[in-house]
Structure formats: structure tokens, C-alpha cells
From TrEMBL:
The lineage of its organism: Eukaryota, Viridiplantae, Chlorophyta, Pyramimonadophyceae, Pyramimonadales. This is 4Fe-4S ferredoxin-type domain-containing protein. Residues 35-66 form the 4Fe-4S ferredoxin-type domain. It comes from Cymbomonas tetramitiformis. InterPro entries: 4Fe4S_Fe-S-bd. Gene3D superfamilies: 3.30.70.20. It comes from the Eukaryota.
Length: 162
């Protein structure tokens, strides 16, 4: 009987998440720049981390009282380039690679998924896999918006490769 209830809850949660996405999937077509921060608390080492983002950027991160894992409190520092650079360094130096740049719509969906695991509504390994997939898709799609670092050289000369 409990397996039947669990299966029904999973089907219901899948239907709810598909309804929340609707025809627009922010992971397929990002609506803008990835300027928001998402911390995957399932991978975060929390207070045991050797390079703590909370120590490096106390203005942007804090430890959650319930989970003792890092959580982002401030989403952006557009007015101060030094703080923005320090935040970028902090994201890149996370030993577990659990801090990610995402768009606002992506952030909302990722936080809903994470909250399911924290509240015990879904199995942690299932949510962790789902977050992994969504973050991989977000990293790929969000990176496509960037301007190339260098423009290709153009030449009007004909080149013979033989």
C-alpha cells in the first residue's frame, strides 16, 4: 500500500513540475543573462568546508540554520566591480562545485526542486540527479549567450592546402 502511495505522489509531483514549466522551459531558452546565484545544498559541505564561501563572501552567503549548508543571500553586486569579481572567484573556488550562475526563472525552479528534498517530499538521490541534469543544461544554454572572447581572423586570400 505504501508503494502505491509513493508512486502516486511521484506522478503527482511530476505533473505539478510539468505544469509549472508550461510551454516555456527556461533551461532550453534562457530569458537573459545568468546573473543569479544558486547553491546546491545537497552537495555543499557546509560548515566543514575548507574553503568556505561564507567566510570569503559573508555579504553574499550565509549558513542555513536548518541544514548547516551555505545559502546565497544577496543575488548580485552590479554596482561594485570588486565585489562582483570576489563573488566570481568564490563561485569558481568552491571545492564541491555546488555554486552556479543561473537566470531568475532557472533559480526559481531549482529552489523548488531543492526544497522538495529538504522537506522530504522526494528522495534525495532523485532530486540530486534532477538538479544535476538541470544545472548541466543551464550551464550549456547560459554559456551560449556569451560573446566569443576573440573574433576569428578573416582573410580574402585564397589558400591552397595541397
Amino acid at each position: 500500500m505504501s508503494q502505491l502511495i509513493t508512486a502516486y505522489e511521484q506522478i503527482l509531483q511530476t505533473a505539478i513540475s510539468e505544469d509549472a514549466l508550461g510551454p516555456y522551459d527556461p533551461f532550453e531558452e534562457p530569458e537573459g543573462p545568468a546573473d543569479r546565484i544558486f547553491v546546491n545544498e545537497l552537495r555543499c559541505l557546509g560548515v566543514n568546508c575548507s574553503y568556505s564561501c561564507v567566510k570569503a563572501m559573508p555579504d553574499a552567503f550565509r549558513f542555513d540554520e536548518e541544514t548547516q549548508r551555505a545559502r546565497c543571500t544577496s543575488r548580485r553586486f552590479n554596482d561594485d566591480e570588486d565585489l562582483e569579481y570576489t563573488l566570481w572567484q568564490t563561485v569558481g573556488q568552491c571545492p564541491e562545485r555546488c555554486i552556479h550562475y543561473v537566470t531568475k526563472a532557472q533559480l526559481d525552479i531549482l529552489q523548488l526542486e531543492l526544497q522538495k528534498a529538504i522537506d522530504g517530499m522526494s528522495p534525495i538521490d532523485q532530486v540530486e540527479y534532477s538538479l544535476y541534469e538541470l544545472l548541466a543544461k543551464a550551464a550549456y544554454e547560459n554559456g551560449r549567450e556569451r560573446v566569443p572572447k576573440r573574433q576569428p581572423r578573416k582573410s580574402s586570400k585564397w589558400v591552397d592546402f595541397y
